[in-house]
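@channel sequence for tomorrow's demo:
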Amino acid sequence: MRPEIQALRAVAVLGVVLYHLWPTRLSGGYVGVDVFFVVSGYLITDHLLREVERSGPPRLVRFWARRARRLLPASFLAIAATAVAVWALVPENRWPQFGRELWTSTLYVQNWELARQAVDYMALSNVKSPTQHFWSLGVEEQFYLVWPVLIALVVLVATRLRRDPVRAIGLTLAAVVVLSLIHSIDLTASDPGRAYFVTTTRAWEFAAGGLLAWAVRRGLVGTLRAGPATALSWAGAAAVLVAMVMFDDRTPFPGYTAALPVVGTLAVIAAGAPRGRLAPTPLMRWRPVQFMGDVSYGVYLWHWPLIILLPYATGHDLTRPERLAILLGSFTLGWASKNFVEDPIRRPGTGAWHGTSSTFLGVAVASLVIVVGTLPLSRWTAPPPPVVGEQIGPCVGATAMLDPDCGSPEDIELLADETAFPGDLPLPSVLECESSNAAATYRRCELGGSDPQGGTALIGDSHATRWAEVLGEVSARHDTRLSTFLVSGCSMATTDPIGSIWGSDPTQADNCATALTDVLAEVVADPSITTVVLSNRTRLYAGSLLLTADRVAATMRALLESGKRVVVLADPPEMSAVPPQAAASAADCLQDAGSPHECSLPRAEAEVPDPMREAAAMVGVPVVDLTDVFCLPDRCLSRIGGLVVYSDDNHLTRSFAASTRDVLDERLATALATA
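structure tokens (generated this afternoon):
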């Protein structure tokens, strides 16, 4: 193997691993993935071009079989071992997410699953899964599937038209680079979460490597003299390292910024292994560098499951010694993977596995076993909600906080212990009423009673969605109608384009502003709506997204001037600092904690300034505040009266929201009397 290729792999995998272990120390280490993409594009295209020059269109089945023997055994082993660890170590409420990502990784479509989650606000309660890193391997596998087919088609068409097939391949590669790069720049600007994962925004990086391979084979890029080659090699390495050091999570990526590591990688490959006193070749050939390049695939496979799963085993965040142990363990497992799995299986003469038909049969069987084996994880569901509708009893959920006969704070957390469960979502019919900031639209749904007069409008984001069902029940008690206007990821508190949950992206900012403008117009024009309840996770949009009390007050004044009564339903406290150990949310914490008290928070940490409350005070709008059903005087709780309060660390469970019905009805009536 060429030393510069192995050196690039070493730098790429080391950058990725160090970034995952110490993200603030090497904030742009994630560009190591892009280095891998360029290297793969170069090597695979060079291989396919050799075959085209020798015998015509590439033999697809044989190519795919070689790739399968090279890559899949080690990855299947890593996935299977990870699945066992998830079953043994991870709280059950994380099984559905982790199980789904295990089998999407097995099928090499993890990048599309993560792209879906990136635009799904309800997926924000998801945590980093131990197979999340398979997104890049999915992109690579999709490249291996599509690339030889594309080249074969180009060769066939060029041959039919009596054109030079190799020249046609070059033009195709150039077209892919241009079109995919334009698409990447555009999507990164409009939808950065999705852009990071989808294959189409990364295709140009593979094609750029392929275009270099084509240019070399056509003689357009020749062997450089020692001096220029040395300068080019160092410049390319510097470009990659600068990206690793200077980029961070605020860098728009991939987009145009990905050009820096891509061009740097191309420069190193084009320079080769230069000779000369100042050349980097001795460093490239250094045994530790070559070793890291040799084991890079296995290291990439194993490092991330160790990072994610070790905290579940220890019950605390990773310490410095544990991070160092993971670094060493990743390279040890990478070495073992190469020597005992990868090399023996792909070596000729390894029995039935080495035949083409047997390879595909083995892949199919292994994939089926893993997918079927992980289905119980992905299909796991929480026990059914113990309280819904009229079944709310004394000392259950919120009622336990308001009745002094329910006992001490410790009793309130432990009450009805046998009914505790990780969390439940609102009814699908309610969730279907929620729109997304991915489009400048909204849905209007009708809940509650049948009388259209004196109706109430609920306007807000996904936090308001968690109140919709119980507010519908309160409205039904009085035979009034509740109309919901819910857009997830949008503040729904100002018509100024300030941004959304995913950041100050201009498209989503405009979507949110447009949605609220249209909602306000409909509500103001509807005489049957006399009351507007505003409820938002407004603290989330403050600060960098510039949601201020003044802007919220402007929205309130517009409603008041139209003759509507306005009430603020205050956002519940948040438990984002729970727990201090490895689990990612209050619901996770309750799975493993010795006592629910371990999953509570000091009230000062759970409550933060809220622009909605501040605006209400400015305008004179009443606030319905239920903080006392979530918090004791000094602490806010994750489980109350036997019910889990949050499905993640901020969204209410359906059952706990239902338990607030009586107190919500009472306090809403009091607020409306003063509105």
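heads up for whoever presents: The radius of gyration is 29 Å.
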